Amino acid sequence: MGARPPLIAYNINLDTGNVDIAKNIARAIRGSSGGFPSVKGLGIMIEETGKAQVTINVCDFKKVPLHRIFEIVKREAARYGVAVISSEIVGLTPLDALVDAAEFYLQFDGFDRSQVLENRLLE
Q1: 56 - beta bridge partners?
Q2: How far apart are CA 77 and CA 68, in angstroms?
Q3: How far is the C-alpha of 88 from the C-alpha of 24, rounded, in Å?
Q4: 0.85 surpassed by pTM
Q5: CB–CB of 93/67 below 8 Å?
Q6: 77-87: per-residue pLDDT in tens?
Q7: pLDDT of residue 4
């Protein structure tokens, strides 16, 4: 019997109907193509919106945090003249993965994870 870190199903939506761009970006980030270790990715078309999506499984968010994946997808998309329009998490995700992203984007001064209410309630 073995255990693995929680998998995070993470999708990033692009402002394009060109699924080839999403496929190229997915290839750039997935571990099997030389991208991030513990990241799997595909480029797909969302028929309801007519927009392409990079659909990602993050197998170990401590090795590759969500904000790092998001920033690389954003930069890769910009190379094609495409913007990221949204992202989504499908299902459950560890609180630490979201706090990591908040720390990165909000650039808190002196932040400590003990300031997170849920962490205090668990003490």
Answers
A1: 10, 41
A2: 14
A3: 20
A4: yes
A5: no
A6: 999 999 999 99
A7: 82
The answer to whether 20 touches 45, Cβ cutoff 8 Å, is no
* Domain ranges for the chain: 8-91
CB of 83 closer than 8 Å to CB of 34: no
Between CA 47 and CA 8 the distance in angstroms is 23
Domain 8-91: top CATH class: alpha beta
Residues 23 and 56: beta-carbon distance below 8 Å:
no
Tokens of 82: 């495409």
Number of Cβ within a 10 Å radius of residue 122: 7
* 14-36 confidence digits (pLDDT tens): 999 999 999 999 999 999 999 99
Share of the chain above pLDDT 70, in %: 98
Lookup: tokens for 42:
């595909």
Q: How confident is the model at residue 11 (pLDDT cuts 50, 70, 90)?
A: very high
Nearest Cα neighbor of 96 from 35, 5, 29 is 5
Tokens (6 digits) for 70 = 């998001």
